[in-house]
Amino acid sequence: xxxxxxxxxxxxxxxxxxxxxxxxxxxxxxxxxxxxxxxxxxxxxxxxxxxxxxxxxxxxxxxxxxxxxxxxxxxxxxxxxxxxxxxxxxxxxxxxxxxxxxxxxxxxxxxxxxxxxxxxxxxxxxxxxxxxxxxxxxxxxxxxxxxxxxxxxxxxxxxxxxxxxxxxxxxxxxx
Length: 175
Hints:
Elements: E1 18-22, E2 25-28, E3 34-36, E4 40-47, E5 53-59, E6 68-69, E7 72-74, H1 81-93, E8 97-112, E9 115-128, E10 140-147, H2 159-173
Parallel strand pairs: 4-9
Antiparallel strand pairs: 1-2, 2-3, 4-7, 5-6, 5-10, 8-9
């Protein structure tokens, strides 16, 4: 099912005359409003400690509950990627990001409450104030450090994070 099939009413006027306009939008024949289905922005944090170990989280909720992940999440309205990744890291690990450097982005899908959300995941290398006291909070059930040479991308539950981990490790090895 195409994600636009879930939208039955025009979000502007409430009309049921809200039909497919093209492969990425619907248009209301009553008020003329066109709704484009665009991805939601999300962030992912690569955090290394002084021993070149990566901070890894275990997902506490679906999707992919129990699998490995990196700290991150959806951006809030009026928030930059750097602000969003810092907020998510604080909410999930208790760590304070002092610098977030954009690395790359990857498209992804994320099943949320039975709705498949298309995302654009923004990956950042984050430096934190201290790596000593990590907590597992919010939707994270555990947080811990893993040496980069012991990371196995297939243990990560989300597609974009698996691909991101692979890219990050390759870049890090080529330094």
